[in-house]
Amino acid sequence: MTSTIPLYYFLILATLMFFIGIYGFLTRKNLITILMSVELILNSVNINFVAINRYLYPEQLQGHFFSLFIIAVAAAEAAVAIAIIISVYRKFTNIDVERVNTMKF
Questions:
Q1: Is residue 101 domain-resident?
Q2: Can you give the pLDDT at residue 58?
Q3: What is the chain's mean pLDDT, rounded?
Q4: What is the number of domains present in the chain?
Q5: Which of 38, 34, 32, 37 has the alpha carbon at shortest distance from 82?
Q6: Are 14 and 45 in contact (CB under 8 A)?
């Protein structure tokens, strides 16, 4: 006897993760926490892709492939963003978003 988790559980989890990510993106001032918020948003999208694919088309894997593609793009985006953040920190010894006007030159 196997029990499956209802789809709306996954949708509620993904919605909570998405809005926590949006809140973190809009309210945080540190570039690292903003990057973590963007990753949280992308992971909530991955949960939606996999859950909806599993419930609508259980024999097909399109949702899984989209999720793998998003994970690859997110890893590349995180690597570039961390490299930029390290470069900014080395030059200005600060990664606070509110001090962008002092980071121009």
A1: no
A2: 85
A3: 88
A4: 1
A5: 32
A6: yes
| Residues β-bridged to residue 30 | 96
Question: Residue 10 in contact with residue 51, Cβ under 8 Å?
Answer: yes
CA pair distance 59, 12, nearest whole angstrom: 24
Which residue range is the domain that position 50 belongs to?
Answer: 7-93
| Beta-carbon contacts of residue 78 (< 8 Å; ≥ 6 apart) | 35, 39
What CATH code is carried by the domain that includes residue 26?
1.10.287.3510
Amino acid 105: pLDDT: 56
* Average pLDDT of the segment spanning 61-88: 91
**Six token digits for residue 19:** 């809005």
Nearest-angstrom CA–CA distance, 35 and 69: 18
d(CA 71, CA 53): 17
User: Residue 73 in 3-state DSSP?
Assistant: helix
Q: How far apart are CA 86 and CA 31, in angstroms?
A: 10
Helix, strand, or coil (residue 96): strand
Mean pLDDT (whole number) for 7-11: 94
